[in-house]
Model the fold of this input.
Amino acid sequence: MEKLVIRGDRDLRLCGEVRMSGAKNAVLPAIAASLLTSEEVRLSNIPRVKDVETILTLIAELGGAYKVDGDTVSLRVPKIRSDEASYELVRAMRASILVLGPLVARFGKAVVALPGGCAIGSRPIDLHIAGLQKLGATISLEHGYIQAQADRLRGAVVEFEKKTVTGTENLLMAAALAKGETILKNCAQEPEVVDLAVLLNKMGAKIEWLDADTARVRGVRELGGAAHDIIPDRIETGTFLVAGALTAGDFLLRNVCPEHTATVIEKLRASGAIVETEGENALRVAGSREVKAQDITTSPYPGFPTDMQAQFMVLLTQAAGTSIVTETIFDRRFSHVNELVRLGASIEVQGDKAVVKGKTLLSGAEVIATDLRASAALVLAGLVAAGETTINEIEHLDRGYERIEEKLRGLGASIERVKT
Ligand code: EPZ
Done:
């Protein structure tokens, strides 16, 4: 086990420059897409994070081959020796559900463990299942596993009851090889979904967007290989932008896509931080010691991302006044609140809202992380908490952030990874 030890400083100013990694939530569906073809799929700018290792293990267990060389992974799945995604892998990472669509579409069968819930709430996959059934898959749920079968999927009109990121991704991949035309309505519009469609079209799929959340997919018999650059991680970008705002720092973020982070940037500017684009793919953030309170409500892209809710809440603990944070996507995504209160924050949860009263001076303590973004929030709080903050169980953090302590140290933070 490992922990992070942070020596916080209320007057810390992060300075210098830092390079963002490729997006975890873009590389996972892109790796799953390699199941759709027998040819090589080569992905570059991949983040070296635990979730990538997990899904590559899953691809290998299914019978695929892969080779990682620096920030590039080459995958090839000429055939499969198993069509089962085991419970231990799915439990380790619910995004393993992304192999369901490709396996059924190309091989006619998939057996995937039900993901179950996690620290941020119940994580149903009924919309994935309903969509695949519309395309003609026969699906049964037995012994905690989804068994899906189809001789060949057939195009259909699928309207998602609510926006689902991986549900949309599963259906884009399945429809790409279905016989005939599929129309997907009420699709998630996250950049990672749009980028998956770009990759699939490079592989020979025929996907076009009829409007922002309606896709038309004309199925093809088979798909080929492709080379693709993974887009920058907009949530890592948002996390570091908040670090700059929180510490009244002044630094550059490289390898970013500003438009993917527009809503977070807008809220940071409203809180008093300066955020400027520097050329094509860099941002400059300069924080202010006077942080303005404001209300945040999470919603599907292009709204304020739920994956930035915990991190932004830390900034709001330093704002003068009261802020209301409303979480509309997940039913239990306030696990970071109790830990922030232990660091000295004044936050009260009332249903889907958290009422944050600031400004509170934070002081270091031993805290525990329960999910990926809650962990990131505790790191941010530790930076400006007087004294030492120890964050235990940082395997959650390592699932989605590449070398976060090195990146923060490079900006002037005092943070170490320690074996326990
Ligand atoms: C993706 O999860 C992301 N993960 C999550 O990021 C992100 O928080 C989430 O989208 C929302 O933006 C990946 O892309 C790998 P959803 P996903 O399906 O696809 C409900 C992180 O920190 N729903 O968009 O699982 C669901 O309960 C992770 O990087 C159903 O009801 O989320 C939720 O309330 C955490 N039935 C809402 O929809 C379904 O079949 C959105 O979930 C599917 C979802």
About this structure: The first strand starts at residue 2 and ends at 8. The longest helix spans residues 50-62. DSSP finds 14 helices and 25 strands in the chain. The pocket of EPZ is lined by residues 25, 28, 95, 123-128, 162, 164-167, 188, 306-307, 329-330, 372-373, 400 (CB under 6 Å).
